[in-house]
Amino acid sequence: MSAREPAAATGLDEFAALVRGIAPGSPRSGPAPARLPVCRFWPAALEAASRAVAAPLAAALAPLMPALAWTQNPNYRRQPPEPTFLDRYGYSVIAGPPDGPPALARAPALALGVLLLGPRTHYPRHAHPAVEVYYTLTDGEWWRDEGPWRPQPPGTAIVHAPHVRHAMRAGDAPLLAVYLWRGDLATHARLTS
Ligand SMILES: [Fe+2]
């Protein structure tokens, strides 16, 4: 599905409106939200997203950035797929269960967040039991099941069924995508062969 299709564009507008609705009702207090090295790519990623079909969603995400807490899969922190990966990868939960990473809004049955990869970063094959829908905000290459790698423009919805192997990689610019998980939210992704 592409957001260039009218139905998908309508869905995107509704999605963006929902994301905009999160910010006003979620004031944060206490310590500043966690940042990661990958956050240095946020401005470039958001700027690229703002020039593409996903601009409404990018505009909805922009004001959330000061409140976003960034985190990394503990499986990768223990055993990075390659030495520079943790310097160039991170995600932030916008809405998620209370026992998960810090989120702007609580949602017991789903997780909604953003994934950010630095330029030329390869997030290798991995899998998890949750059902996942990604919505791309920038260009990137995506791989699923048996492949092949496919370039996916901004505004593409990508669905990963439970336990399906998948991977993504950024080109010369950062890769930014919104993700949605449902099902087993507690089991982190693991790298696969
Ligand atoms: Fe995934």
Written overview of the protein:
The protein is α+β, with helices and mostly antiparallel strands. The chain has one domain: Jelly Rolls. It has helices at 6-22, 42-50, 55-61, 74-78, and strands at 70-71, 89-96, 103-106, 110-117, 122-127, 131-136, 140-144, 150-152, 157-160, 166-169, 175-182, 190-191. The strands form two sheets. Strands 1, 2, 3, 4, 6, 9 and 11 form a seven-stranded mixed β-sheet that branches. The protein has a five-stranded antiparallel β-sheet with strand order 8-7-10-5-12, with no helix packed on it. Strand 7 (140-144) and strand 8 (150-152) form a beta hairpin. The longest helix has 17 residues, at 6-22. It is globular, with a radius of gyration of 15 Å. The model has no long low-confidence stretch (mean pLDDT 90).
Computed CA radius of gyration, to the nearest angstrom = 15 Å
Number of helical stretches of at least 4 residues? 4
Structural class: alpha+beta
Strand content: 25-35%
Q: What do we call the CATH topology?
A: Jelly Rolls
Distance between the termini: 28 Å
Q: How many domains is the backbone divided into?
A: 1
**Hetero compounds:** fe (ii) ion
Integer average pLDDT: 90
State the major sheet. Answer: 7 strands, mixed
Strand and helix order: HHHEHEEEEEEEEEEE
Approximately how much helix is present in the residues? 10-25%
In CATH, the architecture is Sandwich
User: Mind telling me the CATH class?
Assistant: Mainly Beta
Task: Write a concise synopsis of the structure shown.
The chain is of the alpha+beta class and 193 residues long. 20% of the residues lie in helices and 31% in strands. The longest helix is centred in the N-terminal third of the chain and has 17 residues, at 6-22.
